[in-house]
Amino acid sequence: GESVGLHLPTLSVQEGDNSIINCAYSNSASDYFIWYKQESGKGPQFIIDIRSNMDKRQGQRVTVLLNKTVKHLSLQIAATQPGDSAVYFCAEKRTGFQKLVFGTGTRLLVSP
Amino acid sequence: EAQVTQNPRYLITVTGKKLTVTCSQNMNHEYMSWYRQDPGLGLRQIYYSMNVEVTDKGDVPEGYKVSRKEKRNFPLILESPSPNQTSLYFCASSLGRDRVSNEQFFGPGTRLTVL
Fold first, then answer.
1. Which tens digit of pLDDT belongs to each residue from B69-87?
2. A22, A53, A97, B113: which sits with the fewest CB atoms below 10 Å from its CB?
3. Does B1 touch chain A (CB under 8 A)?
């Protein structure tokens, strides 16, 4: 598959564990924060988003937490599976701009 | 099947030889965008289009051109490619007249190498 980066921070977990992927942001003027998943050889895929006036949002097996005080975003994956192995990107939709700004990504490796 | 397609998927070319990477979507999306992905830099937006005949620069537009003559197509043109344009390119589309949607649908990527 395509290599998306040789310098990515990597999180290694065992199958069944919970994973927490973190993202720090610097711009306070963002409407939304979004998580994308990129599997090897594929384009990024939307996972979940959270509006900037919320602290927590849950999806199927995923939870996103937003701490605006310290400008920190996290994605929690429950009962991590081998199929969750991928690169995860956080992104921001900044107020007044018609684009998403992506972070550099974190590689999640799930071992059986 | 709803999808974004890109062609070619892989391309090796030489400096200065004009090339076009095509992008097509069948979801009737207004918004389309091009990104490049480089190690350690994440995804950076090159150009985007809010609708037919409406295009605008992203963060790294130098050396690229785009056009949006039809809603479904958004080709990326490199008039005179240089080695620093060696990268993995993604096209994306989303719903959203006059605004970008959080959920963008990405194509499979085009790996471009410029020698």
1. 999 999 999 999 999 999 9
2. A53
3. no
Q: Do A8 and B40 touch (CB under 8 A)?
A: yes
**Residue B112 corresponds to which tokens in the numbers above?**
């471009």
pLDDT at A7 over 70: no
Q: Is A1 exposed, middle or buried (0-12, 13-18, 19+ CB in 10 A)?
A: exposed
CB contact (8 A) between residue B99 and residue A103: no
The confidence band for B98, taking pLDDT boundaries of 50, 70 and 90, is low
Cα atoms in the 13 Å half-sphere on the side-chain side of B34 = 29
Is the model more confident about B27 or about B96? B27
DSSP conformation class of A83: G
Q: Are the C-beta atoms of A22 and A105 separated by less than 8 Å?
A: no
Find chain A residues with C-beta within 8 A of B104's C-beta.
Answer: 44, 46, 100
Distance CA A23, CA B104 (A): 20
> Which two tokens mark A56?
């927590």
CB of B110 within 8 A of CB of B21? yes
Which token pair is A76?
Answer: 């929690």
The single residue listed with the structure tokens 């099947």 is B1
| 3-state DSSP helix/strand/coil % of chain A, to nearest 5 | 5, 55, 45
Contact A56/A75 with Cβ under 8 angstroms?
no
Interface test with A, best of B99, B101, B102, B106 (most A CBs within 10 A): B102
CA distance B88 to chain A (A): 8
